[in-house]
Amino acid sequence: MPLLRRCFYPLLVILLVISPLLTGCDIPRVSAEDRLFLNLSVDFLGEYQLPKLDFEGAPVGGISAIAYDVNRDRLYALSDDHSRLAPARFYTFKLNLDTHLDTHLDTSGQPHPKIRDIEVEKVTLLKQANGEPYLADTIDPEGIALSPRQTVFITSEGVSKTGSPHFIGEYTLETGQLQSYLQLPERYLPDPSTEQTKGVQANLGLESLTLNTSSATSTWVEPFRLFTATESALLQDLDEDPAIPPKNRFLHYLIGEDQSTLIAEYLYPMELAPFGAIFNGLTELMTLDQGGHFLGLERAFGLKGFSIKLFQLATGAATDISTYPSLKGDTGGIAPIRKRLLLDLESLDIPLDNLEGVTRGPKLPDGDCSLLLVSDDNFNPNQVTQFMLFRLKGIKF
């Protein structure tokens, strides 16, 4: 008998024997959509409202972004004061959790830590290249991210009435001194003419910011990556039809020791604004891993108050749109960032304020990762600086 036939017959017998067993098994099916995303979930642990207070002669408020330093166990909180009430600045906060596990258990028996209080330890003024603080209405700080080289990156939406530009700057963590700016593509810069036709919309610019590393560790090997996105569409990307959701742009930078490069842009598809909304936008991003997964926070405000949604994002299959001068009209040939709703915060059934900041927080006593959201009170006595604590399941600390 030929060798091929001698090998084939035993294999055929084995297949005939096991095929009924295979057809009787419930083999789990994973959809292509599921494979794009991480298996994440969030559990709400509680909120804390920072009391209205002054620190070193200025009101603490307008917190538009936060970043957690795992090595120092501190939060860096950026104020979006336009250098009006005090020079542009960020704060160092100490987050104190109440972790008496025997007294705080949720309905499933898991530890249920809460925020006991938050201490303001330090204020750091942002300084321009000449070492001077920013003048009033020359900066609108919105995003902050902690880098592994003892610096923070900060985005400013700019101030249109004074002609102050949008920017991404790198500042020393200890002193707040400006080190350098990242170069923004010309298409993001508003026209010098009075009738704007391109660039970021006023107060809808680079609101979000995140790096692919969240701790200031000396062992991190450069280069690293920085991600930001517009809060809404660029003027040249706006569709006239209000039924078409805004087409935001998501920027991906490679940050090296001597040079930083914008290597890609992606289409971020916003949700349509809820009925009666006055404004609607993407307020924050947070990196989840090195594989192109993020969290995205979308916030709207209208007749019913604040509407806040937290999405998981997957950028792996998105089209690079850096060569597209405009996104108006049909974008069927462009693969956008994929989104999956992780949490609609209205389902928590608690009053929500103007949530704008997101960061991974300290490790919880049971080893899970914590997630923190913070609101910008706009220095309004009728609003609050609201910290919301969550357990984030599905990723390692």
Polypeptide structure, described:
- The chain has 397 residues and is mainly beta.
- It has a single domain (33-393), classed as Tachylectin-2, Chain A.
- 7% of the residues lie in helices and 42% in strands.
- The chain is built from two helices and 22 strands.
- The protein has helices at 3-24, 32-36, and strands at residues 41-50, 54-55, 58-59, 63-69, 74-79, 89-98, 114-125, 141-146, 151-156, 167-172, 178-181, 206-211, 224-230, 247-255, 260-269, 277-287, 293-302, 305-314, 338-344, 355-363, 369-375, 385-393.
- The chain has a four-stranded antiparallel β-sheet, with no helix packed on it.
- The longest helix has 22 residues, at 3-24.
- The model is unreliable at 1-25 and 214-219 (pLDDT under 50).
What top-tier CATH class fits best?
Mainly Beta
CA-atom Rg in angstroms = 24 Å
Low-confidence segments, ≥5 residues, pLDDT <50?
1-25, 214-219
By secondary-structure content and strand pairing, the structural class works out as mainly beta
The best one-word shape is: globular
The DSSP helix count reads 2
Task: Count every beta strand, where a strand is a DSSP E run of 2 or more residues.
Answer: 22
Largest sheet: 4 strands, antiparallel
The helix-strand sequence is: HHEEEEEEEEEEEEEEEEEEEEEE
